[in-house]
Amino acid sequence: MKNNNKICVLLIIFIFIFALSSCEADNINEIAENQSEISGDEKSHDNVGVSYDFTAREIADTIIAAFSAETLPQMKNYISGVDENSEFYLEADYAGILMTGRYGAPEEMNYAADFAFYTPIGHNVFEINVVKLDDIKNKDAITDMLQNRLNRKKAGDIILYNPEEMPILNAAIVIDVEDYVMLLCTTDNNKALNIINDLFDGNTVLLKSDEAEENTEESEQPEIEQIILSVDGNTVDVPSNIIFDFALLTPEEKSGLSAEEITPMPTVRVQKHSHNEIILIGGRCAENAMIRITGGLEEILTNSDYGDFLVEVPISKEDVSVLNLSAKLDGREWSDEIKFIVKAKNDVTMFDDGGIYAVIVGDDYQSVFFDCVPDYIGSNLINDAEKTALQTRVEKKYQDFRERGMTTEIIYLLIPNPMNIYAELMPKRYTRFTENSLTKQFTEAVTAGGATVIDLTDTMMAHKHDNFRIFFKTDSHWTEYGAFLGYTELMNHISQKFPDAAPRPINDFRFYNRQVNFGDIYNTLRLEQNALRETGTFVEFLFEPPCGHAYLYNDAQGPSVVFDHNVMSRARTTNTNLSGNFPSAYIFRDSFGGSIHAFLTDRFSEISWQAYWNYKYNINTIAENNPDYIIYLITERNIRNIMYE
Description:
This protein is of the alpha+beta class. The protein folds into 3 domains: 28-210, no CATH class; 226-348, Immunoglobulins (Immunoglobulin-like), CATH 2.60.40.10; 371-642, no CATH class. The protein has 17 helices and 25 strands. The chain has a 6-stranded antiparallel β-sheet with strand order 1-2-3-5-4-6, sandwiched between helices. Strands 19-18-25-23-24-22 form a 6-stranded mixed β-sheet, sandwiched between helices. A 4-stranded antiparallel β-sheet has the order 12-11-14-15, with no helix packed on it. Helix 1 packs antiparallel against helix 2, helix 2 (56-64) packs across helix 7 (189-199) and helix 14 crosses helix 16 (593-601). The longest helix is centred in the middle third of the chain and has 20 residues, at 384-403. The radius of gyration is 28 Å and the shape is globular. The termini are far apart.
């Protein structure tokens, strides 16, 4: 009997439409004229290597003015030489986050005489970076820095959340011309290059892009060495370079037992390498059955989830492995075994290609994204200087409130990573670090600065075994039941000042479990949509919330737990006109803000919701709203995104 390994790449497209950024000039002709005046007689069509005096900002503005507003996402711009209180100011330490993902000023920035970084907000890619060198000999260092920035963008979450923009990202280039280096990630790089050529009299030198470096030569196919393997008396020929196309050996029936005494045999629907030496096996079995796999480097014992299972099986690096899969229900014997023959590979890149969205499959069907790992192993701790800087930022915000006569309180509602809640289910190759964590350091710093932190870790730990899920197992978000628990903790705190805003009791809601298509984590594994399922928790409001209860999920391929971020991602203001004394709020949020939206609009008189993933802090805008509370609704793995605003 043969199992056909069906691999179907499913990309769920989420298009995020943000408010469009404004350009500094009315049109490209006006800017080009200004730059011509700045350059004076130094421009020459006959000389290569002449000196140009354009500022980095002038070049970036000239390029961006050539694009229609419809093609531009909401952006945050950083420009050298501005006052530290300017919205365009780039802290030296934050430049490290921008360029390398690490806090601390990159050494390469010392070689920049001038810069303009026009970067997107949210899951968008349109970006223009211009650096003017202090010395032409440092061109390679700046080029490497911008290339690292491009590599970081490609290793991010665009593939998952906004795949329509991947062609833009794949076409991105780094160029140098005279004493400038530029990163162009636009919807039309030819247009941008033509503008640059006009400015620099055709002296542009194009560096190699990733696509230009592709090797078009045909690779030699390795010879296939045949291995003769005997398994339970069955002789099988196995190619040494086999991927996962094995013979499933016919199981030997258990003699003397009736069908009612034996657990039904599982059905295998997933069989693929996730790493060179790790195999994914998944499928369906009897509901509540336990799954056992032997023959790998360790015995796997895990619970199925409402009849679905997916497990990672480490295998030998050198030898052919024979894996044995069976299932067991309480009161019955183990099912007949399904046998697989498998060999390690040396060219599997799926996990590495996923970057921070690589998938870790744990026990009991619980999976997480790799971006949970730094918080889990303690690799992202900050130093004392960073903690002090963070405290100072919060103190400065409160000082601004006092100067404007505001009584606003800052609250950080921190949602823990499921990897920390379900640590016992995580693979043994990850060792949890419990001595300290970024969450603890963050809490200490902002609390010292005057803010309030509501860490939901203890709450989630107390409810992790409830009948209703607080996190999905195949998706990276919390459920609406988890959001209800967070809402309850938040409003319990706020009701100390505003008693009318106390959370509604759970009896005002009906929570229920429903089996639907799996979520964004399993999508990233490129599984066939109907191969596995998710039994998720959903909610019905037993009253009509003031701003309605929107349906949050993308059901294009059938009911699922994949979030349609278009439903709630945009900036908005909700007014509820509730009778009573209810507070107002200004909320910064990541995508966890969708599930809690309807709960909160019922407890505030007005909420200004900043767009998903837009953590840009503007005191003037906030002062105009004069909210009672500024609330950062953020998941643990996104804490670094709000540390420097």
